[in-house]
Structures are given as C-alpha cells and as structure tokens.
C-alpha cells in the first residue's frame, strides 16, 4: 500500500527536519514516497536539499522513494499528505516586510503587524491555487500548512477553497510545552497545556503535569525567575511579575509585540540599525546552512538548523500526519475551525486549539468562554484576521487599508496609508490581486 | 495508596454489575475500598447485595475492603468516587409515574413526559443534599451519577450545588455503539459514533469504523432491514425508511416517544391493561433477582440481570472512573457542561457528548452546530429541562405547571393541570419542596 | 407627484377594505393610482371588485385613477407599493388543507400544521416570482405581504429573492390590542402591547395603557372572566386560569392549536362532520359577499365583510404604507428581519415585532431574551419554519417530510408520510417544484 | 400634581443650561420643583448657581419651586427625575488624570485612556451610593446620568445597583447630528443618524435627511472638505479621505485618540507644555464663568457657557426627561442596556443607541450586526469597559492593572504598572475601595 507525502517548498532549509521526522516515524507512518516540489527560482536549493534528503533516507535504510520536481500538478498525483512551507518572494520580500514598517516607527515583523499582513497578501493567492489543485488531483489528501501567518492562511483556505482537509500547524504550542517542562523539571510528554486563542496569539490557560494542575507553579516561576520562553527568532524581553499574576495566563513570545510594543520597537530598531533586518541575518544563516547541506558526507539533519527559530515546526507536522494516518485520537494543538470550541469567537474562525486527531480530521476540544481579561483583544485580533483575508481575496485597496488601521500594531489612520502604499509598491510583483482596483487615487 | 468508591443506593439490584466492573478493571483501577450505602427502607436488600458483593470480591481474590452501611456521611470519608443509583420512592413511585399519565391518555414513562418530570422532582433535592455532603466531606471526589433522568439531574447538581465534579452517565450511547457494531458485523471497539444532543434525546450523527465513515451503510441497513435497536426496557416499534433517510441520523429508542407518540401510547396502554405498568413487571423481575442474589453459592453477576434494561449502565460508570483515575485521555460519551461544544445550546447546559476523559474531568469535543432538521426540537427539550430543574428547586406550582405544559409529550394546558395535581398528591411524601407555595387555589 | 399602489390578488373579497383604507387616509397618503391585478381564473371576481372599488372612489370624491388588469408586469410599472393577498389554488385548495389532515386525526387548518405547510409550499414560488418582477420593474417599491402564512412567506422572500423591501403584516396583533382595550374599557389607541414571537405564534409580554403597565390587570381579567379573544375565523376555547397565570403572557388564539390540541381537534372534527370544512363555510360567505358587491348601488365596504375573520388585515396594511410614505417613525407590529431584536432567534429570521416605521423600512425594537417559559417552543417553531421554507424552495421530498415531522401538530413519523403523500397528490397542480425529486420510491 | 427634578452636582457651571432647558419645555414638562444638591466643598458655587437659577426662573415667570441643599437624602424625597453631573475630586483630580499619563508619553484625557479609567474608579462608588439612595427613597425616579465616562458609569449602575431606572446621556450624538445638518445645509431636526457603538466610541452608520439616505453625501463632504466635527473640548485633527472612504462611517471626535494616537499625543504634549493641562484651562474658564454668574443682573444662561465643550449636554437630558414624562415614543440616542440591539455585544452591556423613549424607559432599536471593519475594536472596547467596572467595584489591584493593560491607549505591560501606581497614589483620597487589597507588594 502506498503512502505519499508531497512537500511544497521542498527547497526550504527546513526540509531536512521533516525528512528526519518521517524517517523517525516510519514504523507507524510507513511513507513509501516523498516528492519535494519547488519553483524555478528555487531550483538550485531544491537540488541540494533533494540530494541531502536522499542521503538521509539511504542512511536510515528506509524503503522510501524520494524525488524532486518543479511540476507541482504531476507531484500531487495520488498524494496522501501535502505539506506547505513556502515563502512567496523569498527572504528579499521578508526584508521589506521588516524594513519598511521599522523605518516609519512601526513594528516590522515577519508574521505580525504590517509585515505579517503583506506576507498573508502574497501567500494566500498562491496557496489557494495549490488547494484547488489538491482538490482536483488528490481530493482525499490532507494539506498540512505551516506557511505563516499559519492561522490566517489556514482560515483563508478553509473559507475560500473547496478543499476542506486543511490543518495549520505552528511550533509555538510545542515550544511552550517544552519550555514549561524545562521550568518544572519534568518530561515534556508529561505536560499538557490548555491553549486558547489563535496562532501567534495563543495563551496557555492551564498546565497539567500527569493530570495535576500546576498552573500556579508555572506562573510563580515565570513571575519570579523571569525565565526565557522565546524561540530563537524573536525578541525576549521577559514578562513582568504583575502582568503574569494579573492575567494568570501563559503568554506566548509574540504577545510581546502587543503588550511591550514600545520596548520591542526600540530593541528592534536598534538591532535593525546595527545588523539590518532579521531577514538579512537569516539570509546569512541560510547560506551557511546550504553550505553544510551541500557536503556529500552529510546524511542527517545538522544541529545548526535549530538556531533558525522554526525548530520543531516539521516535527509537529509529522506528529500530526502520523495521527491522522493512524486515527490515533491523541490530542495535539492545531489550527482548525472553531465550531464552538471557543464560544466567544465565530464558528467559522480558525483557532489554535487542542484537538483530538482522528482519521477524519481534528476535533477541537471545547474550552469554554475566553477569560474576561483577554477576550477583548482576542476577538479584535480575530476580526482583524478576517479583514486581512478579505483583502487578500478582493485585492481591494480600502479592504487592505482597514486591515492595516485595525491592526493594534498600526492603529494609525495616516500611518496606515503610508505603509500600505509603500508596501504595495515594494511587493507589486507578488500581489496580482491588487493590480486592478488597487491604489486609491 | 487507598482508592475508595462509595455506592449510593448500594442495595440496588444493579450493584453486582458495578462490583463486577470494578473487579474486572482492578489492574488499572486498583480500588482498595468499596462502601455500599442505602437508606433504612432498603436495609434488607442492602444486606443481600452486600453479601453477594463480598462473595464476588472473594472469588476474584482482589484485596478490596467491602462493607455496607446506612450512615452516608461516615461512608463518604476519604471517598474518591461516589456513584449514585437511587430511586426515591422506589418502584411504588415509578408505578404512579407510569399509571397516572397513562390513565389520562398521556405517555406514562419512567424518564420521559410527566413521569420523568416527577422522577426529577423527587430525585433532585435528595441528590443535591448528597452533593453538598460530598463537597464538605470529600471535596475531591467525583460524583458519577447514573440516577435518571440522568441529564437533568446532572445539570441540576452542576447548577445548584457547590460541587462541580459531577458527571452523568447513561447506557444508551453504549448500547447504540454495540447495536451498530452488530449491524455492521464488526467489533464494538472499532465503532465510533459522533453523538449530539442530550441524555435520552441523543442522536448519532456520524458512524466511523476504524476511522472510515460508514454512516450511510448503517442508515441503509436500518432503513431497509428494520433492525431492533432498543434496550430491554422500552418499546421497539422500529423506524420507517423515510424517517431514517430524511433525518440522516441514528435516533435513539426514546425518540419513539416523541415521533411515534400515538403508536407508543396505544401499545403502552394495551400493555398496561394486560400486565399493569412496567414498574410492576420490574417489581417481579427484582423479586426473582433478589431470590437469586440470596443464594450463598452465587459469587458472580447472574446473567438474568441483563434483562432489566439498565444493562451496561455500571460498566459505563466503571470505564469512566478508570479513565478519570488514570488521566487516560480516551473518548467517552458522558453528560457534562456544554461550554460551546454545541454552539446552538447554552454554555451552561448539560449535554450528552463525546468527551476526552482526563484526570481533571471530561473535556467535551466540539461537534459544531446542530443539524437543521433536529435543532428545533433539541433546543426545545433543553429549554423544557431547564423548567423542570427550576421547579425542582423552587417547588413552585406555576413553575411545575409550565414544565408540564412545555413538554412535547403533554403540551396540553388543561391536561397539564390534571396530571400535575394528581401526581403532586400521589408523590406528596417525596416532594417536600412543594409543600409550601405548592398547589394553586 | 404620482403615488401608485398595486394590489396583487385584487379580485379578493377583502379588496374593498384596502380601498376603503386608502380613501380614508388620502390626506396623508395621497394615492394617485390603484391597479388591481388578478389571474385569468379570477377574472370575473376582479371585474366585480374593480367596479365596486370604482364606485367607492367616486363616492369619496378622491382623484385616484383606479383600474384592473390580468397583466401583472404592466401593472407593476412605476409602482410604489405592492400589496399581496393571493390564495394559490383558491378555496378548493384550502378545503383539502383542512379536510385531509382532519380525516387522519390531525389538526387541519389554513395556516397551521399540515395545511399551513402546504399553503406555504403553494404560495412561496408564486410570490418569489412576483418579488423578482418587482425587483426588476419597480425596484423601489415596498411589497406589503398579507398572504398567509405571512411570516413564513415573508422570510422566504427576504431570504430567496433579491428584493429586500418586503414587510409582512397580520391582523392578530391589531386584534389583540383591540380586544385588550375592550377588556380594560379604554381606547385602543391608548393601549400598547410588547409582542414577542412570530406570526401566528406571537405572545403579548407587556400591556401599557397610556404608559402605565397594566399587564397584571389584563391577565387577571383573562384568568377570571374567560373573555373571548379570538377572531371570527378560528376556534375559541378560552384559556385556563392556571395557564394564564403560569405563563404570565397574552397568548394569541392560534396558540390553542398547540396547547389545547386534543380539545381543538375534537371540536374541529365535530364541526367538520356537521358543516364540512371551514373552507366550505367561507365559500358560502364569499358567494354572498360577491352577490352584495355586484349591487351597483353599493359604494362602500359592506359591514358583512368583517365576519370573514381577516377583518382589519388591510387596515393594518394601509397604516403601514402611510407610515412608510411619511417616514412617520410611529410604532407598528410587523413581520421583518430579527437582526437581534430577539437575541435567542437567528438574526436572519423574520419575527413579528414592534418596529419603528421609517421611510427606509421598519426598525425592530429590541425586546431582549425570550421568557424562559416559551423560549423553547418559539425556537422550535422558528426552526420548523426554516424547514418549510427550505422544502418550498428545493421541492425535495425529504425536506418536506422533515418539515412535517418537526411540526408540533404532526410530530408523527408515520403519519407525516401519509399526510405528505396525500397532500402532494391533492395539490399536484400547484407544486411544480415537487415534480422532480418529489415522492420517494 | 407635582413633578420634581433633583440635580446632583447642582453647583456645576453647567447647571444654568439644564435650568434653561427645563424652563423652555415647561408647557409639556411642567416641573413644579427643582432641588440643587452639592457637597460641602461645593457650597459656595452652589449658592451662586442657586441664586442665578432663581433669577432665571423668576424672569421666565414659571411656577417652579427652586431650592438648594447639601442634604441629598432629604432632597430625594418624592423626586421624579434625578440628574447627575458630578466631578469627584474636582478639576484638581482631572488635572492629575491628564498630567500623569502625558508625562509618561501616554494619552492623558478626561474620559479616555488612563485618565478615563481613574475617573470611572472615583465616580462609580459615589454614584452607586446615590443609586442605592434613590432606590430606597424615590424608587420610581429616573436617574439621568451625564457624569463621565457616561457609558461605563451607566453600565456600572445598571449592573451593580438595585435601581434599574438609569439612563446615560452624552452630547456627542447630538453634536454629530448638528454638525451633519450644518454640512448638508439642512435643519438638524430633519437629520437622523443611525448610531452604533458605545459612549465616546460611537459611529454613525447611516444618515437620513427627511427619510432619504444621504450617507454618501456626508462622507464625500467630510472626505473632501475636511470639515470640523469636534466639540470645543477636544482636539480636531480631521480625518483623512482614505479613512473616511474605507470605513464608510462617521467617526466621532474621540476616535482620534484611537486612530491618530501619535499625532494627538504630540499635539497634546505640546499644548500641555505650553498651557498646562486642559483641566487648568477649564479651571480658568470656570472662574470667569462663576464671575459672570455672580452678577445679580444676570438672569439667563450666558453665551460663554457653550465654549466649555459640554454644551447641549443638559439639553439632551431635558429632552429625554420630557419624553419619558410624556411617553412620547420619539427616538433619542441614549446609553442603555443592549438587549440584543447590537447582537455582537453582550445583552447586558450598555450601548449608545437610538431608542424609542417611552414612559417605561428607552427601548433600543435593533441595528443588526456591527460592520466588519469596526466590530473588533468595538468589542474590545466593551470588554475593556467591563474590566474597568469590575475593578471599580472590587478595588483589586490586579483587576485595575488588567483594565489598564487592555486599554488600546495604554497596551503596555510595564507602562501600565507605572501609571497605575502613580495614579492610585495621586487619587488615594477618592479611592476607598482600593485601600485594602490594593497595591501589589
């Protein structure tokens, strides 16, 4: 029996991680075929990754048929799982998403604020096309989306493509679980966190260790010891004792952008002035990673990959595919339709939620009404996400503008226009939907 | 480490089943102490059951300390689980719940219609007192309620007692899963059903066998082969092909009361005229059961118990206690707070729902909006249940009257008064809350 | 400036009332043109009514250009208001709606139960076609629908036609206000009632006389004096003291079908056996009315019209048109989109609600959550109405079946099929949408 | 028949306006008694105002019995209307509300941001005490609250006092209607605006002139002519064309704080550095006003009062009292319980909404779901208001902190603590509820 995984954006420097994840789970998730897909511009990287992946499979002695191609439609034939990890416009585009807002005194970040909005604008049309292809060519396949902004992209696909087998994943809940285990000095597999909210805006509400509620222990440690909780790729300013005690929640690192805006901005502007954008730093990192990857002796995922910040992203994806395949009914934190799990949010909203993973998809576990302290900002973020999705589809200038002005990191009616015009100009090549009906006179 | 189970209504003829269930699971659920509790009037039966249970434990060679008592508060000391299976007023009260409505041309049934309402009126105050005791004496204990009407009683406890560790169970979902397995000729453990609705008003929405959707197969078989789906204790008229195809849902046997009212009534009236009420039939059954139980040779649950209709009720309860104890995170169908799992119903409503069973309680799995075909009647039944609970607490005559008149099996403004007055009179001894502010002049 | 009213179903015996209403309001609602429209089968009656209407206008010395035609599209040119009062299939169809259910032991009534469902099935497609024409020919015109079941029909038009200027009216709230005034011995214009619910399922929640709350006074009188509250065309069995006191609401006469089902059925079956259906009684009434109308001396609405039961229907419609025209901002009870006025019901549901009447349509006044006692049955009725509308549009047999079985006056899975098959057969000519995909094999 | 109005905060410089409003409406709102109430600290001003008011009543030749007192309970005897216009801590407190945030780089404003939060903290306990007195002494009296933050204060009273006859008013909707009339060059009484949102966060959704929709005309004028729309007391930076066109809504002047934060802050900081706080400016204004008021020749409201910014506030209050008294059923924009009028917001939330004014209170007109563009921020503001109310009642430090950090004008976890500690210290005398359980260690 065949089991085929297609990796869209196969030339990504993260691919070795997903290959490793598949190899490691081969007993329960017996993949027989992997196809790496990329676009013309990524051809060279695809070759490098493809060859490394081949060496990894060989070393592991797994009977997996691994290949790579630029022909996406061909690759999708008979696929069972399609994972997506693309970056429309590459790091050059990310550099603009970071630089332009920063240069006007706004947060410039890959998945939040103006940068995140434009990443969504560029990505959604491309992935909608993919979803349409999947629906036609391999309608039973699951799309596992880890392209950022993962929650927004997943909601856009579920709302605007006919393909409904789409799940979004992120490494943030995974990281929070692991950091919490570290703080408590227990094994990650013994820790369970009740998450509420959305991708990159998720909170931990309860922490259980082997079924015992240890939420207060974790909060106390965080409040008093100022522990590091951030992944490699974003700032870590820590949280004040008062904030932790008053909210009674585990914040995720991205919340710093919203509740420490000024401090983060100061730090980011300084870093930008000293080292350029994070995109530029990553570019160097990537270059050295690919130098490593080229080494024909290398036949496993190199340690250096973890410093990229996206570590464990593909591990999360592999776990998910494994449970879908095996109808495992274990609990994982994924991005899927709300359907009432958070009654304060619309039923048709993608949330990041603990879900039972079955062969027929994730079934979100009801988490009850949101805590009063954060329900307002969570609802607003969701409403903002809807505006981003609408503008991504319509390409309407006013729609894009309202998404900008209603983002808490912008929230400036004149600044929104400045950023919007400059970013539309900068990303012009990747925003076909904005070409007509775009810029207001 | 001690693990103590207290069985309220320990003199019930069902108790051997729960004892058997505990013995069978002793490896994973190592109960060290069982106390059977009953009231003065049930003393004799308690002795018989107690002795049988002792013989069962001995035969099984488990180190369980089993005892019985009339002192409930003493029994609750250090309890971990408290199961409730009581019948306020005994079978004599049930006989009235059945006879009085039937004699006026209304459905007379133990848990539905006027009879079910009065069972709730009698039961809720008694179990509220128990819940208060539990909260004071053993606040960490779970109450596993399988006293009917199980959903209404559970909602009443969760809304009106301080004790929030209360879960209701019923054997109907269990039976539906087993019948479905039989129909499909597969093992019950390979069948999963997505349930929606409330206790005794639950529908099956999807049937999965080893993760494959086989809903249509089951519906087709039910529509064409007219299979028996009912437990021993209620009528089985079967469902018409059109009803099954048009709703696309698995109905439960109790739905016959609502969608085949006239036919059921005809059959029940005839049975009543020929054999008296179901209560009287059960009384005979019980008498012969206790005759068996007395036999000092008997040291296991006798086969005859299954014909009582409540078969597997306690099996369901034991499974649940086992998973709570072990933080199993498996999925069971229980009665617990909605919290958005069915967004059409209030958050603070008890529903019967597939839930992940953790050490810290059941976490309902979101099932999305109700199907359009049944959302109206489900919502109405829930609103009716709220009226029953309110009247159970207030003892207000008008509250009781509105519960009667808004029940679809009564729905008669003059008949409601006749039934209400006659039932209040008949059950007078068990309805202290109605003594003042009761009967309208 | 022209002001044109088109009356669809102009040959109706009710038309003189609407003509009288327009004449009476001519100072503030200066209609310049009235066109009566009917179909070929109603040609003769249209002539009679047309001539009577002409004589009425002449007597009143109003400069209104009145004409009649079978050409609907022509008539709609430049229309400002389009009123609809049609009966698809005529009284012969109504006779079947009444007779067939009664002959199987179910309520047989024009606008409730199986009869009401089939009236909706016949009417909705015809009025959707009208609404489409209006939208194309005179898009600024208001459709004032008083074709029954008025609430369901209005919801169907608002949901399934592009024309959104549709308002439903009924005389029941008007009658309740007048009866209440009579009971209290005050002027109707001094009485205000807060209504909640839907057409033919509306309750009065509060009664104010000149701003003073007199709800209790009215309820007490109703409870103790057993006053007559019904219009001419439906039964009047009165309400029991207990029902009135326990609900604390003013029921409308149609509620008798739901809360006195057995008694109403007995009475209706008896009346049916003695005098045939209500349709046949009405047929005789109509014949004598038209005999009166033919009299060339008659130049005003004859008193006899009021005994038809629909009295004041057109008065309500004229009041509404007057306020729409004048942007009056007075309060009238109409059938319009909920939009949150009753938060328990869907936003996109037509309710019967006190509304501020402005030039741009009715603005429903928020009435807050439904009373606990009736929220269940009201929600269920609304869910049932949605099923009726769906089946009216799809013509799907299973959709029609679920509407039948979920109606509280049927609620019988086998009976539903019997009634459905017989009524589909009987009304075959008027149900084009059921011709394909109709009857299940 | 007596009709008594009690003015709490009668020594306010605004009082002459309300006196004038009562005199002007005396034919339809025949007030027979007015009592001005103030506290010891305001005794001198109360005398001045009292004497001026007496001269005004005499000049108008109305038989109104006018007096003033420091004995609030005595004054409330037999009151029909109680208006509240108090400033706990006086302008000195306001000065701190403005200065402290500004000095840390945050918006410092009377009713928004940190200043508004502390005004709520000081005001709510005082007005709750008043509401309790009213409920006891004159339970049928309406409280007309125009003490800011009017929406939050009104919600606090309706949620936490037994007195439910409380309505909040503000001059912003009045001003927006008048400015719109000016822009369109029509009479204010011909203009109607559909408002959505909350006090000081209200938007105009539709503008009707004599029933015709002129929303686009108004938006176009605002977008192209940059008209002044602000009251005297807050900044006016105008709105960009893009913002107006993209939202399609009439913003109110306070929205500048949220969508032009940086620009407003720059301007306010500059003004603060040049002229001190707005409180200090107002202090001078007040001093000159009272100088005028002392003049025994003055017997009418002086023109100069209008420059205070609160102009028309009391006109709005008088209109409302007049309609309540007369059961007018006209439409006014007031702060009252939502009850579903905006289905996106909780039923138990005070909103600023067009309502039908009846003798038994305002009945909000349903305005349907919020526009997608602003629903997020409106919901968030409402959730924030709930946090403010909770902290006002509990006096809990963490509650106060979360209200600060969740306010979009603060949204800074470290800044929130700085502001909170400094403001708690500064207002210590007026925050008895924070004395225990206050400051975190």
Description:
The structure is a homotetramer of 441-residue chains. Chain A has a domain at 4-168: Rossmann fold. Chain A has helices at 15-24, 43-60, 72-76, 90-103, 113-137, 150-160, 172-184, 215-225, 241-247, 255-259, 261-275, 278-294, 313-326, 372-394, 397-405, 413-426; strands at 4-8, 33-37, 65-69, 81-84, 142-145, 166-168, 191-198, 201-209, 212-213, 330-337, 350-358, 361-364. With 441 residues, chain A is α/β, with parallel strands linked by helices. In chain A, a hairpin with a 2-residue loop joins strand 11 and strand 12 (361-364). The first copy, chain A, has 16 helices and twelve strands. Chain A is globular and about 55 Å long. In chain A, helix 14 packs antiparallel against helix 15 (397-405). Chains in contact: A-B, A-D, B-C, C-D. The B-C interface holds B 105, 239-243, 245-247, 258-263, 372-377, 379-384, 386-387, 390, 398-399, 401-402, 405-406, 408, 411-417, 440 and C 239-240, 242-243, 245-247, 258-263, 372-377, 379-384, 386-387, 390, 397-399, 401-402, 405-406, 408, 411-417, 440. Chains A, B, C, D: InterPro entries: GlycHydrolase_4_CS (IPR019802), Glyco_hydro_4 (IPR001088), Glyco_hydro_4_C (IPR022616), Lactate_DH/Glyco_Ohase_4_C (IPR015955), NAD(P)-bd_dom_sf (IPR036291). Chains A, B, C, D: Belongs to the glycosyl hydrolase 4 family. Chains A, B, C, D: Its cofactor is NAD(+).
